[in-house]
Give the backbone structure.
Amino acid sequence: MPWRLLRFGLSKSHPEPRMFTTHDTLKPSYDVVIIGGGGHGLASAYYLARDHGITNVAVLEKGYIGGGNTGRNTTIIRSNYLTPEGVKFYDKSVQLWQDLSTEFDLNLFFSTRGHFTLAHTDSAMRTMRWRAEVNKHYGIASEVVGPEDVKRATPQMDLSCGGHAPIQGALYHAPGAVARHDAVAWGYGRGADMRGAEIHQQTAVTGIEVKGGKVVGVHTTRGFIATNKVICAVAGFTPRITDMVGIRTPIYIHPLQAMVSEPMKPWLDSILVSGSLHIYVSQSSRGELVMGASLDPYEVQSTRSTLDFPEGLSAHLLDMFPFLSHVKVVRQWAGMADMTPDFAPIMGMTPVEGFYLDSGWGTWGFKATPVCGKTMAWTVANDKPHELITGFSLDRFRNYALTGEKGAASVGH
Amino acid sequence: MKLMTCPVNGTRPVSEFVYWGEIRPMPDPDACSDDEWAAYVFNRNGAPGVKKEWWCHTPSNTWFIAERDTEKDFVLRTYLYGDDR
Ligand SMILES: Cc1cc2nc3c(=O)[nH]c(=O)nc-3n(C[C@H](O)[C@H](O)[C@H](O)COP(=O)(O)OP(=O)(O)OC[C@H]3O[C@@H](n4cnc5c(N)ncnc54)[C@H](O)[C@@H]3O)c2cc1C
């Protein structure tokens, strides 16, 4: 037993500083108010303070930090997307991830595993080749490999997938990684707090005051705050907030479910994704298999989960790994995914001055947490969109200039 | 098992149905502006509420309307198009 624990037993008050400060009161005004204490909101606060010296900032979180999609996701980090905008953006994020544990002095369990997107059909192989070429053009480690390479990395797999979906090959992405999701929120939160930003949990935004087309403040469950700049980073709650400022968007909400198995000795090094079998799976540092599938088939704005999800997912998992038939599922849950028609995010400035969106992150936004914080902070500090996010602006829909990311983001996230 | 009631075939498992989104009135493509048309094509009403939605019972190809609370995932009523009087 560590002797340090004794201090906690003997001391009347908590002998160590908490991860971040709890503030009893809200200030009457802030330079920037961030709605949503998920990874994206906290990273924005962190980079506003660290890169731009903007510290009079409040992050308002209606529940607890990391309790939204950040703490519900299956943590796949990769950059082998299909469009140039996407590849450049996610590549920047993968670079930022490498140093975060050191930067935060907090172990994020960031673990580079290699990522296989399995192809079971000729048309899937075609998409893999296309993605590999786009990726290589931008200097991303990405290549098409054969079934024997999949077998070498994962000898336990039945390559015929029960005989009905034989694997033709895969897109292999060596930098593919996983990380501990809630530690990411804590790391960014603590870093923002240390630099002067305030984190207010249990504080919901209930309205946004707009005068003459400009943001002037927000109403919260703890009173009114004056501010000219609001970042909205609320994932599945985005339409409720955009309704407050009268902005219409293409965002629609479907639940995305996930589940974990009981812990096992490490046997699965790689991250595996199969579009045809609607499944992705990796093994966490705790030994659990972390698994997910595609979106629920219809709109729901809640985090209920359903039995048909583990049933369907398990059937497909057993096609790949018949030896898992006795392994138990120990938890399942859902998050609300803020989907867009082109599977790309909606980021940056909006028709309301001072209202900045970081949304449309659907089923793929965890990997983007660092780069979103970085580019949103830059955009707010300079009042113009960062060059990496110009392709993601809300007005691309009005201009019919969509970003065709579906081929790389739909099941693989 | 989640159930849905088809106005023709009665109550069936929801897996027999497909969802086709909220009913959205189409502006006249010849009369409306490009912005109005883009708004119709892309924008959605993503906040929760009781919505009128298109659903189809796939085995019988019956299209109908469901009034559903999208936060509670609770269906208030279903009827064929034109029968909501
Ligand atoms: C099951 C599942 C699996 C996923 N898998 C992956 C994956 O493998 N890889 C990947 O890259 N992405 C994945 N994603 C997507 C990823 O989780 C999200 O895109 C990302 O975490 C969004 O982070 P965020 O900080 O924007 O939102 P969130 O973490 O959801 O934070 C938003 C916060 O806003 C708060 N909030 C909402 N309304 C208000 C209000 N009115 N006032 C104050 N606060 C408010 C909420 O309480 C919440 O805490 C997955 C998502 C799900 C659901």
Remarks:
- The two ends of chain A are 41 Å apart (CA to CA).
